[in-house]
Amino acid sequence: MFSGLNNFVKYILPKRLFYRALIIVAAPTIILQIIITVVFYDSIWIKANKNITRSLVAQLKAIEEVYQNDKTNLDFLTDSYKNNFNFEIGINQEIFPKNSGERRFSPMDRSLRRELKSTFGNNNYWFNTSNFKNAVEIKIRSNNDVIEFLVPKEMVSASSIRLFVLWTTLPSFVLIFIALIFLKNQTKPLEKHSMPIMQKQKAGSFIAVASTAGLVGFNGLCPYIASKHAVCGMVKTACLENGPMNIRVNALAPGPVDNRMMASLGEQLNPDDPASVVDMVNGMVATNRYSTNEEIANLALFLGSDESSNCSGSVYVCDGGFTAA
């Protein structure tokens, strides 16, 4: 059973390394966004529109009561609401609709149904929110009459909710796009330049440069973190794909290194006292110092040599214990 499922997953997954790495980055973000949309958006919609919908239904109830108490001023009533609230009101003795026009999974419809049911009771109301783009059609049974309303849709739902959803969703897709650019640059040397040569000679050692950012998270560095995590996943995938051809694939994950990159980072974080950034980072490292370029190079030399002939599919860390805690 599990063997068949495993073969099915392998069949449907993309074969190219870039797209596999993209799934590693995009899939968690997309799943999280779906959860946010289904759970939180639905809840927020109901809460935000509760008072708006309740106010509308209260007006409909007031119109019905006024009509039942005084039917002589019907024209004044309908004209007044049309001029002040943009309501279209009609009264007739048509057969009341039996089939509901509401949408089952619409938060707007659910909110409106809840208020109409509590005010007018079951089988005494009918509404449709999809027949018109900017209006909601509502029908109320009042004794032997049917009162029809056509009300602006903004009186049922707040447009700011959609803006909120856009605000929460758009950054996620922007981050995926940025990560895609990073991934393209990361996988290009592997797919187009190095691997074809190694595959032809049926031997080789590919060393990807990742980072400790591919093993942990850092506040405010989402695109960079996502791209480095993808590199680590890409290495494991490439290891499985190219292992039968005697090609080893590993990743280097340097921690803080005493080089131009970290010096530039210190100047950006604290232009007045970059040395304080060094002290702060050293305090997070078990050996209490940065790694050197030579130490990173020595690890790369080991991975590229025959001394690591059976090392593949791993992420090798040189961080002085930065990620040990």
Task: Give structural notes.
The protein folds into 2 domains: 2-17 and 171-318, Rossmann fold (3-Layer(aba) Sandwich), CATH 3.40.50.720; 38-157, Beta-Lactamase, CATH 3.30.450. It is 57% helix and 13% strand. The chain has 9 helices and 7 strands; from the N terminus they run αααβαβββαβαβαααβ. The strands form 2 sheets. A 4-stranded antiparallel beta sheet has the order 1-4-3-2, covered by helices on one side. It has a 3-stranded parallel beta sheet with strand order 5-6-7, sandwiched between helices. Helix 6 links the parallel strand 5 and strand 6. Helix 2 runs antiparallel to helix 5, helix 2 (17-69) packs across helix 6 (222-242) and helix 5 runs parallel beside helix 6 (222-242). It starts with a helix and ends in a 7-residue tail after the last strand.
**Backbone shape:** elongated
Supply the number of helical segments: 9
Q: Level of helix content?
A: 55-70%
On the 0-100 scale, what is the average pLDDT?
81
Indicate the CATH class of the largest domain. Answer: Alpha Beta
- How would you sum up the major sheet? 4 strands, antiparallel
What's the CATH topology label of the largest domain? Answer: Rossmann fold
- Give the neighbour order of strands across the main sheet: 1-4-3-2
| Low-pLDDT ranges | none
The end-to-end span amounts to 40 Å
CATH architecture assignment of the largest domain: 3-Layer(aba) Sandwich
Q: If you compute it from the alpha carbons, what radius of gyration comes out, rounded to the nearest whole angstrom?
A: 32 Å
Order of H and E elements: HHHEHEEEHEHEHHHE
Strand element count: 7
Structural class designation: alpha/beta
CATH superfamily of the largest domain: NAD(P)-binding Rossmann-like Domain
- Strand residues, percent: 5-15%
- What is the number of independent domains? 2
